[in-house]
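the two lines:
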Amino acid sequence: EVQMVESGGGLVQPGGSLRLSCAASGFTFSDYCISWVRQAPGKGLEWVANIRPDGSEKYYVDSVKGRFTISRDNAKNSLYLQMNSLRAGDTAVYYCARDTMTPAHSFDHWGQGTLVTVSS
Amino acid sequence: DIQMTQSPSSVFASVGDRVTITCRASQGISSWLAWYQQKPGKAPKLLIYAASTLQSGVPSRFSGSGSGTDFTLTISSVQPEDFATYYCQQTNGFPLYTFGQGTKLEIK
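prediction for all of em together
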């Protein structure tokens, strides 16, 4: 069974940092692109970042470029999101999601999410 | 960047009704569109990919159509468990993705 479990969320002050983790199991992690998707309270979904299976290429939404860094450790079946210079607008539930790696590139498995709250 | 616009923002329906939700892309995306269902407090669930292909395990009352810039998600006969929020997502811009703003299906 495919499972993805996020952790690392919490309350952080503006300007602070946080590192999220996503532990994957039930599939060959190193074969898949993985994305981070976030959802602000009461709002819609926003794709944040993704990373190629071998970690060679990384892509970000403009609003987090230069502040967030996505990475992975295929030996540990884990995905990470280092978030620096956090702003109130980054407050959201953060999900990791698996890309199907077909031409359709949809997200067929998601974690349960971890809440990040940026507030003083 | 490709922008996705869903309409309506909310729709009211009764059990058994036929419901259609529309998603429009700011530029042509061929058939690279997915639909998700999200219930409160839960992660999104993939319903349809490549505009019209039903994900395994999804009931056949859900269907998708369209190509280019205009797409629809149809629920042929709404069931109680279908009341949720639905999102479209363009995947043509891989590895850069965009979601629509969501459509909330509510009980009439």
